[in-house]
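your task:
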Amino acid sequence: MKVDISSLLGGDIYAALRDRSAKAKSRFSKERDDERALKERQTCLVKLQQELGVPPEVLAALPSPEEIRAKSEAAAARAQQLRGQGSLAPRP
């Protein structure tokens, strides 16, 4: 029994694959938006607090966005320095 895949997909298979590929590229973009990431993190924390009953003291003990940003920048600088040396060996 032969099946016509193009009719099942409703038209051009290659167009469907191109669309799927374009959507995947935008979804898994390598560029990050810091503001968007912060909003997502805050939304997630609120959901955790509501759904799982996480006490406010636990959320208050988490690092601030500035502390997270500073650690991220330090890690990026360390990685850049290691790339410059040609080695990404783990820290001792």
Observations:
- The mean pLDDT is 79.
